[in-house]
Model the fold of this input.
Amino acid sequence: MTTARTVTRSVPATRPAPPSAAAIGLARVGLELRLFARDPGQVVFSFAYPVIMLAIFGSVFGDEVVLPGIGFREYFLAGIAATGVMLTSFQAVGTAVAEERERGDLARLQTLGTPALSYAIGKAGQVVVTTAVQLALLLTVAATAFDVALPTDPGRWVTFAWVVLLGILAGTVLGLAVATVIGSARSAGTGIPAFAVVLQFVSGVFFIGSDLPDWMDRVAAAFPLKWLVQGMRSVFLPDSAAVAEQAGGWEHGRTALVLAAWVIIGTVVCARTFRWRRAA
Done:
């Protein structure tokens, strides 16, 4: 009598697919926000700087009339809002990336297999959230403490949204790019803020656009901040104020084109030059 024997073959377990670069990037947004919150100096600077600047300049020049029917506070709000976007994106990202590379944080991320795209998504997501909080705080203080009338037209807030979004993306990718070009954290910590201050002056943050010399306006037109400031003015100022710009108008199409071009340029530079480790 023959006994049938049943042979059971083991089926190899199916390994789960690794997470996508987008999923890793979204996870890194939360990590970047936690790291940001653990740095009191960065938190205070990011949120307090625009408010303090508005308070100082608004108190000193608050009674001055910049344009017919437009006071200094109303005019300056657009510039300081644009500056806040630049500081939380270009300046903060550029210095942070240089420091993380020098500490070896980026080398460890590379060892863990983190895609460069995921790292960039994490930085950009953190900038979006912190900039949104920063601008909400600034506009609240401007409206409640300085009686600045905010727009009621939904179309102006749509303009505000796309100007801010393009400004954030341009500033973030340029911060990533310049951190690679500069190299050391010390150089980034001194060079990037110094460049940001100069850019504020030539971009008309503190001046009426038409008061700037032609050569200075041409220089500023090559950088995103000038267009970010002009886009902000189109949101917070009446249409009659457009005559004070160098071109005599808000130039929304050109603003979108220049900011989008810098997003593309910065992305290409990052893709070609980004390094996880310092050059030997």
In short: Strands lie at 65-67, 70-71. The chain has a mean pLDDT of 88.
